[in-house]
Amino acid sequence: MSKQSADQRAKLFAEAFLSNGENASQAALAAGFSPKSAASQGSRLLKHVKVQQLLQQRRTALLQKFELNTEAVLRSLQQAIFFDPRRLYRSDGSLKAITELDDDTAMALAGFEVTETTIGRGKDAVPQTTRKVKWLDKNVARDQANRILGEYGKDNAQSKPQTRIIVVPSKDIA
Asked: Are 105 and 143 contacting, i.e. CB atoms less than 8 angstroms apart?
């Protein structure tokens, strides 16, 4: 295998590894290794310094591109936790259009579905619009935030079992 071919396979492996949920065998297959050797080649490539550098560079680039950092994740969780469904409605009680929502409310939505149907036929037909709004689960967001903030560490700390020594007198001891 030529130097260029090895470098190209390392790049293909790194990209496939990051895109498939970090499965080394599948990444090796995507990089052109045979199914028989994919597991061993994947394991070997993960130990290779050049591949580790490629993976780190690519992860860093992706995190910067998509602004995935602790602050952004916590901001997203904050939007879900403090979501107030009243912000979906105008003062007259009608549902706001998606374009009318403030950023925090829009980011807390998990889905927004609009269905338009017609009731009746001909000139008696009446258009009807149904809107369904789903928002992120606050309990899940709270749980994720607590994990990030380390709040479960205290609860998960295992208490040490207490050792008790019981002395039982024996008649055999003189």
From this structure: no
- One-letter amino acid identity for 150? G
pLDDT in tens, 37-65: 999 999 999 999 999 999 999 999 988 88
Q: Of 38, 65, 92, which residue sits at a domain end?
A: 65
At 54, which CATH number?
Answer: 1.10.10.1400
Residues across the chain: 174
Q: What is the pLDDT of residues 112-148, one digit of tens each?
A: 888 989 888 888 888 898 889 999 999 999 999 888 8
Does residue 40 form part of some domain?
yes
* Structure tokens belonging to residue 11: 């790049």
Distance, CA of 75 to chain centre: 14
Contact 44, 3 (CB under 8 A): no
Tell me the one-letter amino acid at 76. S
